[in-house]
Write a structure and sequence with these properties.
The complex is a heterodimer of chains A (532) and B (309). By secondary structure, chain A is an all-alpha fold. Chain A is built from 16 helices and 2 strands. A two-stranded antiparallel sheet of chain A has the order 1-2. Helices cover 34% and strands 23% of the residues of chain B. Chain B has 7 helices and 13 strands. In chain B, strands 3-2-1-5-8 form a 5-stranded mixed β-sheet, with no helix packed on it. Chain B is elongated. The chains are: A mainly alpha (532), B alpha+beta (309). At the A-B interface, helix 3, helix 8, helix 9, helix 10 and helix 11 of A face helix 1, helix 2, strand 7 and strand 9 of B. The complex binds copper (II) ion (2 copies). One copper (II) ion binds next to loops of chain B. One copper (II) ion (CU) binds next to loops of chain B.
């Protein structure tokens, strides 16, 4: 069933102009739209992060003033979180592979799906517009009352995030419906690939939590424009209320970022161990467990904000509990390797890097969850390091693993594996050189969001800055190799990794219709009998 | 990690060491096992995979055991937190005020200082307030941190065990001058502290702070005005104050723009209620000084601003 031309990518007589892409309702084309746009914004986010690090190389203004630095870290956060890591895996791989993996020809609401992308682009345009006008300098958290007072374009930035939230909710609704309504005959819930389980659990968080953020952001705008006084203490408002509303969304958002990534890892590990995944149900249930318990821990961002003592104790307790489902996943992945026949392919290297970095991220989270220790480490570089280990080391590396695993399917071409393996190693070294010193800086008491620092922190800062150069070099090599592979790489087969899920049973790249005939599913997703 | 110099700090440190220790062991176990499996069962070794779907016993063990481990960590962290709850009876009380971007500490006898001065070995209770935004008082060596929230007084306490000067930071992002919002916590012998508190001249000279006969230039620094205003013509967060006296300026009053001449009254209003006339082109972020500056300090500052040519 070798495809003529390039399947859904067009060619071979099909229409392929720009409008055939940006108005396409094909979930695969929408996946590619997201891929291109999200990666472009990732480049912006990386550049901002790089500049921030560079600024700290010497005391006083080096390449920018304090107020510019504050805008840069705000924009770095907004771009990386709302334009890159929250949408990356669900919107790119979720869109492209979720329907295929459950044996459907598209998502339930293809037009809504396209609308989500347009909302995403609109939000992105607004966020980047602030860059030209006068970028917000509040941090991505927009804490009141500072966000109500500062003279920068906060309302616009906040509105941008609001629009991005809409996009996220619509995608969530689409995926939940698709999973419930469009599974192929024989594809019971317990035969769904774990990536689908993870995206499904994520979609629920998107639907339930994002509206709270939306309300909160609208209140900030109303307060700035009409002075309604909910958050501003000078008008009788409560700034702590803002923090509660903000974290009720933004803590679960961490799981929106990491869960789909865990789904990718759950796909890659069995394929490269050539055996069925260990504890399938435990991994699936733990996704739901994370989605559930994860919504009860937001207060751990506020232990020293002056909310109640009892609330602090309860939130700390749940914070420790939410570690359990994540630990279960890690144990089951490691268990899967036992008595496998492990093939050291590129996606597997990224998955190993993920396990390493995510473990550090998770365990430093336990340290932060302990009440008395949190008092010392809160709002220091320790926190900065911790969440980069989770979001970049975890979600980011999982996304890179996904790129190396699925891009050949999406483009029909294979990248250079040797270069890819090297880029993985360089990224891994760069990442740790950049972020591990930050753990130590935090323990030594260096506060975050500091434009300048005391001399005792210089050495570790410099090490970390050098790490950022290595990391950027790794990213350049990785993306250059992937780009080259996507356009000029050798043609690949239907099933280059020997996967057992449905996407590996259709051509690379897939045809315009995913399945000429909807398949009848008779086996579990990690049943490699006959494929080894 | 530099050693903590407070009792509560030691609690924090031991909780940190225990929890971090367990975490390191867990990490080594996970990574060690992964590395071993990857090596032992590599494909190039000719391994034949064996499909193992799971193991209920193992699954239970690695769910229940970690629950106990994390509960132990939780308990340990809680212990040190509980002790922070209430300051001991008879603690010395200091009122602390945060504003963009300076700290001030007020003692019971009215002495104020931009450093947190404390006697060694005696419990000190800090009642924390903010005059504008949320800031956060952080002394790493004390392992002490508390957000200063406007309109909501919070207390923290410590007993310092060693004399010395320790860094004091603001750790809640509060705008352009956030990373300049630094000071020191100074721990002194009891006798030295008593002398300082009573305003003895030699102690004053050593620290150059508590309300010295207010000279405008000194106040301009110690009250944090320099964070936003220059005297050399450059605008910072706020307009420069060089040569403004007698000039005309466009301000926005209750949302309406108008032009006013800068006189003593205007400067006084600008200091006490900056929100009443906001200079056009600048954000309304100046912390109001009403109830902060004493009458003679206001006058000294007005004279000082008039003198800036
Ligand atoms: Cu501050
Ligand atoms: Cu600050």
């Amino acid at each position: 069933m070798a495809s003529e031309g390039a399947g859904y990518l067009g060619g071979g007589g099909g229409p392929n102009g720009l409008s055939s892409w940006i108005f396409s309702t094909d979930h695969k084309r929408i996946g590619i739209l997201y891929l291109v746009s999200i990666l472009s914004f990732f480049v912006v986010g990386v550049s901002l992060g790089f500049l921030m690090r560079l600024e700290l190389i010497s005391h006083g203004p080096t390449i920018m003033e304090a107020s510019t630095y504050n805008s840069v870290f705000t924009l770095h956060g907004v771009v990386m979180l709302f334009l890159f890591i929250i949408p990356a895996t669900p919107s790119i791989f979720g869109n492209f592979f979720l329907p295929i993996m459950i044996g459907a020809n598209d998502v339930s609401f293809p037009k809504l799906n396209l609308l989500s992308w347009w909302f995403y682009m609109a939000g992105a345009a607004l966020a980047l517009a602030t860059l030209a006008l006068g970028p917000a300098d509040t941090g991505w958290t927009f804490y009141a009352p500072y966000s109500l007072r500062t003279g920068t374009y906060v309302s616009l930035a906040v509105f941008a995030v609001f629009v991005l939230g809409l996009s996220s909710i619509l995608t969530g609704i689409n995926f939940v419906t698709t999973v419930h309504r469009l599974r192929a005959p024989g594809m019971g819930f317990w035969r769904m690939p774990l990536f689908v389980w993870a995206v499904y659990a994520t979609a629920w968080i998107q639907i339930v939590a994002t509206p709270i953020l939306g309300v909160n952001l609208l209140l900030v705008i109303a307060e700035r424009v009409f002075g309604i006084g909910v958050f501003d203490p000078a008008k009788g408002g409560d700034p702590i209320l803002y923090q509660h509303l903000f974290w009720i969304y933004s803590h679960p958002a961490v799981y929106i970022m990491i869960l789909p990534g865990m789904g990718i890892i759950s796909e890659i590990i069995p394929v490269f161990a050539r055996k069925v995944i260990f504890g399938y149900r435990a991994i699936a249930y733990s996704s739901l467990g994370i989605a559930g318990v994860g919504s009860l821990v937001w207060g751990h961002h506020m232990f020293v904000s002056g909310s109640s003592y009892t609330a602090g104790v309860i939130f700390s307790f749940f914070t420790f509990l939410v570690a359990i489902p994540s630990a279960i996943k890690v144990f089951n992945w490691v268990g899967t390797l036992y008595k496998g026949s492990i093939w050291l392919g590129t996606p597997f290297f990224f998955a190993l890097a993920f396990i390493f970095l995510f473990s550090i991220g998770g365990l430093t989270g336990l340290i932060l969850g302990a009440l008395s220790v949190n008092v010392h480490l809160h709002d220091t570089y320790f926190v900065v390091s911790h969440f980069h280990y989770i979001k970049f080391g975890g979600a980011g590396f999982a996304f890179f693993a996904g790129l190396h695993y699925w891009l050949p399917k999406m483009t029909g071409r294979m990248y250079n594996a040797r270069v890819a393996n090297w880029s993985c190693l360089i990224l891994f070294i760069g990442f740790n050189t950049l972020f591990f010193p930050m753990l130590l800086l935090g323990i030594e008491g260096m506060p975050r969001r500091y434009f300048d620092y005391l001399p005792q922190y210089s050495t570790l800062q410099i090490v970390s800055i050098v790490g950022s150069w290595v990391l950027v070099a790794g990213l350049i090599i990785m993306f250059a190799n992937l780009l080259r592979g996507a356009f000029r790489g050798a043609r690949t087969t239907e099933n280059p990794w020997g996967g057992a899920t449905l996407e590996w049973k259709i051509p690379s790249p897939p045809g315009r219709e995913n399945f000429e005939k909807i398949p009848e599913v008779t086996k579990g997703p990690y049943d490699f009998r006959g494929l080894r | 990690m530099g050693r903590a110099v407070t009792v509560l700090g030691h609690n924090t440190d031991s909780a940190f060491l225990v929890i971090a220790g367990v975490c390191v062991m867990l990490f080594l176990a996970i990574i060690g096992l992964t590395a071993y499996f990857v090596f032992r069962y590599r494909r190039s070794n000719g391994e034949i995979p064996e499909d193992i779907h799971g193991n209920a016993l193992l699954e239970t063990v690695w769910t229940v055991l970690p629950i106990f481990i994390v509960l132990y960590m939780f308990y340990y962290g809680w212990l040190g937190y509980d002790a922070r709850r209430k300051a001991p009876e008879g603690a010395l009380t200091v009122r602390a005020f945060a504003q963009m971007w300076a700290w001030s500490f007020e003692y019971e006898n009215g002495v104020t200082s931009d450093r947190l001065v404390a006697p060694v070995g005696r419990p000190v209770k800090v009642a924390l307030n903010s005059r504008d935004l949320i800031h956060s008082l952080y002394v790493p060596a004390f392992r002490m941190k508390q957000d200063a929230v406007p309109g909501l007084e919070r207390t923290v306490w410590f007993t310092a065990e060693k004399t010395g000067e320790y860094d004091l930071f603001c750790t809640e992002y509060c705008g352009t001058g956030h990373s300049q919002m630094l000071s020191k916590a100074v721990v002194m012998e009891e006798a030295e502290f008593a002398a300082w508190l009573s305003g003895a001249p030699e102690a004053k000279a050593a620290l150059a702070t508590p309300s010295a006969g207010p000279s405008g230039a000194e106040l301009f620094k110690s009250k944090g005005c320099v964070a936003c205003h220059t005297t050399d013509g450059r605008p910072l967060v706020g307009p420069t104050l060089k040569g403004i006296f007698g000039k005309k300026v466009r301000v926005s009053t209750n949302g309406k723009e108008r032009e006013v001449t800068i006189d003593e009254d205007y400067i006084r209003r600008s200091e006490l209620e900056p929100a009443s006339d906001v200079v056009v082109g600048f954000p309304p972020v100046m912390p109001p000084q009403k109830g902060v500056l004493k009458e003679e300090e206001i006058e000294a500052l007005i004279e000082y601003i008039k003198s800036l040519k």
